[in-house]
Design brief:
By secondary structure, this protein is an alpha+beta fold. It contains 10 helices and 11 strands. It has a 6-stranded antiparallel barrel with strand order 2-3-4-9-8-5. A 3-stranded antiparallel β-sheet has the order 1-10-11. One of its GO terms (molecular function) is FMN binding.
Length: 282
Amino acid sequence: MRLVPSAVVVVTTGDGSLKRGVTCSSFTSVSLHPPIISFTMQLHSRMHRLLQSTQRFAANVLSEQQANYSVHFSRPFQDSSDVCQFDSIPHHSSGHLGVPILNDCSSVLQCSTHDMHTVGDHHVWYGKVLHASQNDTPPLLYYDRSYRSIGDETFIRAFETATLGYEEWTHEAHLRMAWNYLTLHGKDKATPIIRQGIRNYIDQNYGKVKNVYNETITMFFIHMVHTAIELTNSSCRTFEEFLEACPHLSDPQLLSHHYSLSRVHSSEARNDWLEPDLKPLP
């Protein structure tokens, strides 16, 4: 199931001053008429007991910028008089059901409890959707044990099918492509995929792409992105977080800090890996 992409949903509920949220698994639509959704939750959770009391909840579909919310609400939390699970999370109270709503989510479904069953080691909750809202922010996806965004999925698909416009094949696009493959496959498996992908893209855009394939440039960016991923301990859940944590990669002159033009554009550099002549690699 790890290879089936899924939306990342935080279910929230509240009863007076007591508020709780949890990152849930197996969120799905069950029925359109009436609109019924479902999600699962581990047995013996405090969230389960609170839901039994409130009989209402919100399903907050996280946006691609909210991976940290998923991590936050997946951690065990012990309520106290001084600390609330929502203290560091921007949210507001629903005007429809009075449950806490996370700000700036891709969409929010406010539900009343329709039914609940226990299956194996999980409770399966069913909710009747009473109110739905959405904005233009793409949702966060969870795929192969890592967070992805619709933007990344669309970008990689366009790159692999060579439908990505050449004007969009920017310095940042190179970084995004490398980050996606390296985080998904690791360096050893990603390197031949990146090499072949760039070659295919150049071949399919013959006449538009000014430069031919360059082995040194390709391996340089693979090295720089891979090194940055290791320095951040693979903690960045989205490409945007990664760039924010590693701003040096955004420098469009990054390559020229390490290579002279004559060396990096030589026929040797196009065909084989050449070490930098200006500044060693980190």
